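Quick question, first post here. What does this chain look like in 3D?
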Amino acid sequence: MMGNPSTVRRVFDALLPARKRLIARDQITVDAQVVLAEVAAPTGHEEARALRVRTALRSLGLVAEMDAVGNIVASRPGAHDLAPVVVCAHLDTVFDAGIPHKVARTRERIVGPGIGDNARGLAAMLAMVDAMGTTTVRTRRPILFVATTGEEGSGNLRGARHLFATAAAGAYAAIALDGAGDERVVTHALGTRRYRITFNGPGGHSWASYGAPNAVHAAAALTATIAAWPLTTTPRTTLSVSRIGGGSAINAIPSDAWLEIDLRSTSAHELGRLDEDIRHAARRAQEHEGLKSAAGAPLLRVVVQSIGDRPGGALPGDALLGQVAFDATRLIGRSPDGAVASTDANVPIGLGIPAIAIGAGGRGGETHTTREWFENRDGALGIVRAMVIVTATAELA
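> Answer (accepted):
Ran it through. Tokens below.
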């Protein structure tokens, strides 16, 4: 594959029948997006949505199977037995199954949980498979189309980790379809570490046992300490105590308390430094609460548990995949916008496999809220862009 605009243009021209089909079936793609959005798929419970995607891929002529962690994996054969190009779109959402998933439509906007993130990515992947199936275009490399589990939150990229350790081990390149948009190209994988810190003690009656160490006090002190830390803006780093809880009754000294922390940075050094700081601060909170306690009172115990570790990294500036993505973006009349994000592409980037994440067309907003919206403005163009990137990376046969 040559990384220059003329190569991408040749692929664009070769895909003319597929481009026409995407445009002609644009409303069918949006309807499929709505159907998928209305199937609840909280992280760890994606099976119902996964089975719909498997059925759709099989109806399009691909052999699609569910793997050991719930991913749906299908392959479009290449002309040669080479390392594949991977296209993935995650199945899961941040919403519990009990939240109403019925979407509302107006003339220009569709509103509902997960309508963009990531029902749009899934629908676009299916539309791409359909459109490419109508052409005689063959690629040198096979293309794996995968609907992944566990991309959001506590999923810790479970599906992508399994995929790139099994069916996609040694892949040539990877493109993640995530949400709406047709300009953004995520070339930098945002490193993320997540923690659950638990304090445990004897507890007791709030009057009779006063002086026993208070687990909630320790958790609150740790939260206040972390909230006061200055963070670098270059490299950009964020640190949030996102959840906290504990105790059992208003008239009892709590025997347990916990907090969860989300740490993100574009710098591996900052992630490592703050990891040490968090662990040290947790011990200090434990010790400080012990010093406040009555003489002879049992000490609090503290456990710092890692509940998420997403690898960071970056696509090299001279990588052919990045050049192709930027050229394809310009070819559809958009200005490419390099970005940093945490997506399924983190896993292959962490393994040294060239990878990007892109939007799947249209416009969206209020992601991760029940007010999430999608507008199908030139939506097919975003899928055209994705199809050109994938085909050019897999190389015309």
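The first strand starts at residue 64 and ends at 66.
The radius of gyration is 24 Å.
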